[in-house]
Amino acid sequence: MIDEILPAAVTSGESFWDAADAWLFPEEETALGEVGGARRREYTTVRHCARRALGGLGFAPAPLPPGAGGAPRWPDGVVGSMTHCAGYRAAVAARRSDVRTLGIDAEPHAPLPEGVLEFIALPEELARVGRLARRFPEVHWDRLLFCAKEAVYKAWFPATHVWLGFDGAVISPESDGTFHARVLASVPAQQSSAEREFAGRWLVRDGLVLACALSPGHV
Ligand SMILES: CC(C)(COP(=O)(O)OP(=O)(O)OC[C@H]1O[C@@H](n2cnc3c(N)ncnc32)[C@H](O)[C@@H]1OP(=O)(O)O)[C@@H](O)C(=O)NCCC(=O)NCCS
Known about the structure:
- The chain is of the alpha+beta class and about 220 residues long.
- The protein folds into two domains: about 100 residues, CATH 3.90.470; about 110 residues, CATH 3.90.470.
- Helix content is about 30%, strand content about 25%.
- The strands form two sheets. Strands 4-8-7-6-5 form a five-stranded antiparallel β-sheet.
- Bound molecules: coenzyme A.
- The site of coenzyme A has 23 residues, from helix 2, strand 2 and helix 5.
């Protein structure tokens, strides 16, 4: 499903349940620590998905432990992203020579809890989401905005190592399944070349919202 919103250079793996044959490398085990239950299952299954995405690029299975800020560490020359929510796990990967950075997020397609939209949205985003909700009431635009923001953060952070709050980027979703993001946060001088614009695509299907944010020129 997620491949529908990915450009050709990006490979993916996804699962709608936890894979019984999924396994972890020792360094992934160490990073996970002594946790069990749902957290262990999502962490393991999403790495199973990620190894499928890596395989699609021609890479052998490799350890993908969390690194700085929780972002997964990918093999040299690879960029990627992972997401999990109830009933869904997905990972995407691309060669760094093809895509500078990317991020994905999945959420249940349901309204955000009371008060959350006002917390995460900038005034212009609130206005836009309100307009879209009046025209296309079948989409939970508040959740879609949240999902796109998380995808942008997952694309932004590995490229900059700079924290981004919910007011750190303006997201402009369109009804045609695309969105645009402009980061407002400042970055350290040595990272000033970091691109602040992201192009994105979104999809609502089977009770889920999926979003992918990419450095421009890839959507
Ligand atoms: C990190 C964050 C984006 C994760 O999103 P989430 O919806 O809670 O959870 P998801 O299941 O979709 O994603 C979790 C995966 O994201 C990845 N991830 C975690 N931190 C990350 C980071 N700093 N950069 C990139 N990817 C990260 C990991 O692979 C993680 O899975 P894992 O721990 O099993 O490896 C979220 O918890 C967060 O901190 N958000 C605040 C920052 C933000 O979104 N700002 C908005 C800017 S406009």
